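Hi Y.,

Following your request, here is the sequence exactly as I used it, all 253 residues.
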Amino acid sequence: MTTTPPDLPDQWTIDLHNALNLTILTLRNNDNEPCEFGFLPLTDPTSPDRTIHSLNEITDAQLRDSAHELIATYFKRLEQLKRNIAAFNKAVPDRAELTTRLRRTVPDCRIEQKLNRETPTVDLILAATGPAAGQLLTLINSWPHATTNGTADGITLALDDTVTLTATLDQRRAQDFLTWYRDHSHGLEIEFDADSVSLSTGPDALATWTEDDWTKDPTVVFTIVSAVETALTEGPDALRTQLGQQPEPETAP
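Below is the corresponding structure, written out as tokens. Let me know if you'd prefer a different format.
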């Protein structure tokens, strides 16, 4: 149950700013950072702007009620955010291991869990630049919940002028993606540099292509993309079969 403080916490303030016949209320924490905004219409436009440190400083009952509601809204949002963080941690308890594996699958991938205080939820942000951006897009499009252009509900893709692809997944999609990745990544590692691409699962090499390969035959690029998608969605043995190799023998129990 959310407990709303009866007054402003110590060193917290509310700024009151009048514009036309509207009072804008801004709740600030003890670091003077804005936390919540509220509005009260039909107020006296001649009232001076001021900063209050206690609700007792507000003599107008309607304005005082609005200030108290502002505090209550913030702490309700904070409690909901805490519950969502706990739910995310419960759904993906191995997120540290999964993000480490993601960085092996997409080298140089930047991974961030960001608190979205507006929602309030936990967003997952994945970003990669240059060739790694193509690998990240291939990975996302290998995920059944994504569409071919990555615009399914809860997924946002942005490509900037530095050829950096940024994928933002809301909490529901982030949990679904990491759960899928846990079960379908098969420990795949991709090494990509200026003159070669190699796929492996730990010490076991699956395939390697060099700059000579795609220089002689540019269509090799499509082979590489297809190989990555097969390895991610169907596993190493499916890729071995696709490449005409023998599947890895099963280990006796």
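The chain has a mean pLDDT of 85.

Thanks again,
Q.
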